[in-house]
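Section 3.1: Structural characterization of target chains.
Under the original work plan, the team committed to producing a structural model for every single-chain target entering the pipeline before any wet-lab resources were allocated. The record below documents one such target. The sequence was received from the expression subgroup and is listed exactly as submitted; it comprises 362 residues.
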Amino acid sequence: MLTSDRYEFWQEQYTQERARLLAALGDLTAGGVLEQVQHIGATSVPGMLAAPCIDVGLSVWPFPLLAPQQRALQQLGYELITDAGTTTEQRFRHASDAFQLFAAESGDDRWTNYLVLRDYWRTVESARQLFSTQKERQAADSTAYSQWKAQVLPQMVQAAHAWWISRQSFEPVEVVAAELKDYACFWAVSSGWAVDLYLGRVTRVHRDVDVAVSRSEQLALHQHLTNRGWKLLTPFESKLEPWPAHMLLELPRHQVLALRDGTFMDCLLSDLTNGLWHYRRDPAVVRQLDRAVLSTAQGIPFLAPELVLLFKSKNTSNQKERSQDQFDFEAAFAHLEPERRAWLRWALLATNPEHPWIEQLT
């Protein structure tokens, strides 16, 4: 039965279940697999019409959950729903039908959509009321309801993304810049946020802020972030391991994940020597540092778009498709200066001569 007046009860139930899940699966920073646990779906939104089943989102690493973690969930009463129909999400339902788990890979678009849609509904009353009203009309027929939901939810997600872009602007970048303001070593915003800083506008939803840092100055980074309460992890062989003080990270390690109070920052170790930036996947591909790094009017440094797109090119050559990387290329392409466009074409010819972007860059 659908109802809209049990939010406080559902929130209390979620809080208790969250504690059980954390105890069973463990927090990433303590050797577990959970990056985040979030109350999602209709029961997470005050005043929204919802069925009495609490949706819980799990952002996990590694994904999918391995056999030991699935056994831990079974002991809590959860069973895997085998017909979830996707390789980027695992769905579990509790034997009581009171809870449903949505386990998504850390950083996956599905995880971002869960949170953006929930926050959109919590904030925009008209959207919340519209969805609830339409939901009530369709609920009597389960087949019609499923068809309606499959049609309407993508439209709601699109509207939520537009709301997020308008509401957030560059605030997430400014928060990270404040964290690194007193860091005396090299750093620059990277990845999708760097493209948006180059364009001067936010073009899409970003899950977190990636920051390029100097590999040779990594211990200074460790000290700076730990002094500010960040917990540091480094990926290695499909696992996340704590990064202890005074441990130098050597290749193939190239990434540090910083977590604090639900905030996430991804630090990417870059090789900088003699005024040159070196492409990690092929150190012979270089860029002069004064061309490799740009700065906003507020003094926030960011990697030049051609460097960011070179990294993103690996995920857009039929090896591992990621729509956000293709989106970033299309957003930046028309605005690339001729010299930056020429450098990216040269770098692609040197590293991936069959890449489809090369023809567009000619």
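Residues 317-321 have pLDDT under 50 and may be disordered.
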